[in-house]
Amino acid sequence: MEPQIQYVKTSDGVNIAHYAIGQGTPVVFAADPPCSHVGLEWQQPLFRAGFEGYLSHHALVRYDSRGLGMSDRDPADFSLAARVSDLEAVADAAKLDQFALIALNNSGPVAIRYAVQHPLRVTHLVLWNTVVDGRDQFRPTPQTEILTRLLQTDWEMFTENMVGLAFGWGRDDVRRYGAFLRECVDQPTFLRLYTALAQVNVSDDLPAIAVPTLVIHQSGIAPVAGGRSVAAAIPGARLVVFEGKWGENTDEYMRAVATFLGDDESLPAQDRVRSGTAIILFADIVNSTALTEHLGDTAFRTRARGLDASLRTIIRDCAGTAIDGKLLGDGVLAIFTSAREAIDAALSCATAGDASGLPLHLGVHAGDVIREGDNVYGGAVNIASRISGLSAPGEVLVSDTVRGLARTSAGVRFEDRGEHTLKGVADAQRVFAVTRER
Prior knowledge:
Elements: E1 6-9, E2 15-21, E3 25-29, H1 45-52, E4 58-63, H2 80-93, E5 99-104, H3 108-117, E6 122-128, H4 134-138, H5 142-153, H6 155-167, H7 174-184, H8 187-198, E7 213-218, H9 224-233, E8 238-242, H10 250-261, E9 276-285, H11 288-295, H12 297-317, E10 321-322, E11 331-336, H13 339-356, E12 360-372, E13 375-377, H14 379-390, E14 396-399, H15 400-405, E15 412-420, E16 429-436
Parallel strand pairs: 3-4, 3-5, 5-6, 6-7, 7-8, 12-14
Antiparallel strand pairs: 1-2, 2-4, 9-11, 9-12, 10-11, 12-13, 14-16, 15-16
């Protein structure tokens, strides 16, 4: 399976190369200066093995940021804001409502800033050997002084020394990856990047990160104290420390990320849906008491069980998870990582309810949930339930938050139904009716 490269233009007119490959919940790998080339990375065994590890559970999205790989090589702006706009353009082009974001090394500040600015779009944040203050990475030492002189005088020797320091000089593929690095970026561009990266500092962003975060640090690449300080500054962040250098302990690294993302097949199924931000679908049979009296208890329950099975199939097909601990008897509760998929599931559930003669109230909201065993809790679940109760039979209502997340979704229309005061909710909620485009 080889990725198909596409292009998107950023807000300042830079062409960014990107691809999406695979099925499942999306994972975006932020471009890591200077080592990024979407056209060649699948030919490199180390990169290919790492990326393929995600494809059993995820759609993988990759891109080259400005100046790298197949993107425009000579942009005017290498600032952090400009590189964040590269990620924004790719996420919008790929129509990603929500996604996990993984950042290595120099891409860490971009991922951190993006997660702070877009907390509802990032479900999980993984920071691998991230340096948050560029001055730490480029402080004068005998080693960095030698590298700086090589950068200015001998490009080939510089790239192979960079790879040797990251991978270890005992590996027989140092020259291979040194050549790959020279394909990723040219010497004049890297000189500009080098200057820009040294000026980046996102330390003040760390306390504002509001998404589940995993900090991974390899002691053979940088002092462990740096990883500890990053994890300590991010509310609720987890820290995992590995020995070795680049390309070592890959299985342990992949297992840690899989567990964090909820992909680890050795975990109980209920533990693969994690606490954090989710899109919540609440479906409830309209006037079930009256229907039970009209149909009789046995007939109603038989019909309701058939509808329940249909709803769960729809939810599963739309990449959602029905919450078994919330078997409502007269409906279901489900969570999704994508607003678009949640809306598609809600509309299909509405059709199934009408077809069964058991029309549904349907509401969709987005927010933080707490997962405990087979249940989910939190104010966002309550809001989804209240929005469901506002809907007419067979109608799908969504919160303004969900409408915002699904702004790139194709094939649906949103009709403003105004603000409503919901029981047990302090702030009024604006809701929208969703219908498919004809």
